[in-house]
Design goal:
By secondary structure, the protein is α+β, with helices and mostly antiparallel strands. The protein has helices at residues 56-62, 83-96; strands spanning 9-15, 22-27, 33-37. It has one domain (9-41, 62-96): 2,3-Dihydroxybiphenyl 1,2-Dioxygenase, domain 1, CATH 3.10.180.10. Strands 1-2-3 form a 3-stranded antiparallel beta sheet, with no helix packed on it. The radius of gyration is 18 Å and the shape is elongated.
Length: 97
């Protein structure tokens, strides 16, 4: 479906390393990254689980099992709006009230 509508797939499908949840990241036409999370991953059913602490050393390898997250994943977010575009959005928001 994404290819039919020219929506770029940024990463995935893959599985997050810590949660084991399936994911797919796409960039929608407005430039925003959207995560599609496909299943529950690990189910924690123990009513009294042992405490787990995830440190940043583990996080580097725990984000995606196949390592599918591109380097730009940590450098890119929703695009910054130009002053003109921001003014347009503010006027639209004011008109909707």
């Amino acid at each position: 479906m994404f290819k039919e509508y020219d929506i770029p797939i940024e990463a995935g499908p893959d599985t997050h390393g810590v949660t084991q949840g399936a994911f797919l990241y796409v960039i929608e036409p407005g430039g925003n990254r959207i995560e599609l999370f496909g299943n529950t991953g690990f189910l924690h059913l123990d009513p009294d689980p042992a405490e787990m602490v995830w440190d940043m050393l583990f996080a580097a390898g725990g984000l995606a099992i196949a390592g599918a997250l591109p380097p730009a994943f940590f450098e890119y977010g929703t695009p910054v709006l130009s002053p003109e575009a921001l003014a347009d959005l503010r006027s639209l928001a004011g008109a909707a009230r």
